[in-house]
C-alpha cells in the first residue's frame, strides 16, 4: 500500500481532478498575463483595450472561483472514497489474520488505525498529493509563459525551483521518524481512553469518576508531545521553504526591473512576473513541506504492510483428519505466559461423545488449557493431536469447524438477537425459535418471534448476564459443533435453567463436551465421564 497505489486505483476520478486542476492553473496564468497587458495598455493610454482586458480579467477570476469551488468538493469526495478503500483493505487483513496475532494488539489500536491513521494518510498523504500536482502544473505553465517574456527570467525561475525542492529534503528522515512516533502515540491514547471509559460503571460505584479526567488528561499530554514534535519538524521545512520562496520572488522581480530599465521587456511585464512567480514559488515554497508530508505517511503504510506479512506466515495448509481415537490427544503439554509456567507435563485423552468437567482453583490454568485445545495458542510445548493429526499441521479454519469454544465473557454485536445468532450464516425462523426454546430463553415458540427481534444494545447491555450466556450457547448449538467447550458458560443462569441447559448438553450423545465450572450442580455431576483436575 502507498499513496501512489490508491491514486492509480482511482484513475478516472484522479484524472478528472487533474483536468480541473489544469483548468484552474491555466486561468490563473492567463490572469497574470492579462495583468501585464492591462498595465501596458494603460501606459499606451489605450482606454478601450484597457477596459476589455479588465473585463476579461474579472471573468477569468470568476471562472477560477467557480472551478476552485468544484475542485474543493470533488477532492473531498475522492479522498473520502479512498479513505473507505483503505479502511476496507485494513479490515481485510485483520479478518484474514490468526486469532493469536490479532489479540496481540488492543481494540483501541485497531480503532486508531481506522481513525487517526486514516485521517493522517488523507490530510498529509492523499490531499497533499493533489496539492503537489497543482503546484507542478502551475509551475510548468508559468515557466512556459515566462519563456515567452524572456528566457533569462525562465532560467532563473527554473534554478530557484530546483533549490526550493531539493534543500528542505534534508528534514525528510526526521519527519518520517516523528510521524511514526505519532501513530504509536495515537494508538496508545485511544487505548487509554477506551480503557478508562469502559470502567465508568465501576468508577461510578466507587465515586471515583474523576479518575477518568485525570487519565484522559495524562494520556492527552503524552499525545500532545508527539504532535508538537511533528509540527516542529514540519515548521522547519515550511520556514526553509518560505525563506527560499521570498528570495526567489524578490530576485525575479529585481531581474525583471533591470530588464525593463534596459527596454528588453515592457514595464507591464513586472505585473505578469509578479503573478507568475507567486504561482510558482508560493506552491513550490511549500512543495518540500508537502513532499515531506507525503513521504511521512510511509511509516503508517509500512505498519499495515508488516501486519499483513506476519499473518501470511502463520497460515498453514488444510488436512483431512482420520477417524482415529481419541479425538484429542494431549501428551506432556506445557505452557508458559511470559516465562511463568501455567501448565506442565499434562496428559489427556478426550474421546468422542464423552463429557469432561474441568476443575481447579482460580488461576490454575483451566481457561488456558481449553484455549490451547481450541487452537488459540500455538506456542505450547509437548504434543497435541486432533484425530491423529498434529495441531501444528491443521489450519485454524479446520479447528474452528470442529471445536466450538464459548469464552467466559461472550461477545455480541449491535443488532437483534436473531442477528447475533445468525452472524453471516442463514438459519430459518424455525431453527432460531427451536434453539432459543431449547436453552430456556423463551417459554414457548409463540414468544420466539418477539424475542428474536429484540435489540441487544451496546455489548448486550439490554439483557441479563444469564440471558446473554444462553444466547451465546444458542449461537454455538445452531452450528452443531462436534466438540463444545464451555468456560463458565452457565455461571450467571438461575439454578433451574442452568440445570436444564447442562442437562441438554450432557444428554446429547453425539456431542463431545468440556465444561469448566466452579458451580457444578450436584444433580448433573453423575453425567460426566471424567473430571480433569488442574492445580
Ligand atoms: N493473556 C495472558 N497473559 C499473561 N498471563 C495470563 C494470560 N491469561 C492468563 N494468564 C495467567 O495464567 C494463569 C491461568 O489463567 P487461567 O485464566 O487459565 O486460569 P483459570 O484456572 O481459568 O482461572 P479462573 O477459574 O479464575 O477463570 C493466571 O495466573 C493468569 O494470570
Automatic annotation (TrEMBL):
Its main location: membrane. Signal peptide: none annotated. This is ABC transporter ATP-binding protein. The chain crosses the membrane at residues 55-74, 128-147, 153-171, 242-261, 267-285. PANTHER family: ATP-BINDING CASSETTE SUB-FAMILY B MEMBER 10, MITOCHONDRIAL (PTHR43394:SF1), ATP-DEPENDENT PERMEASE MDL1, MITOCHONDRIAL (PTHR43394). It comes from Periweissella cryptocerci. It comes from the Bacteria. It is found in: Cell membrane.
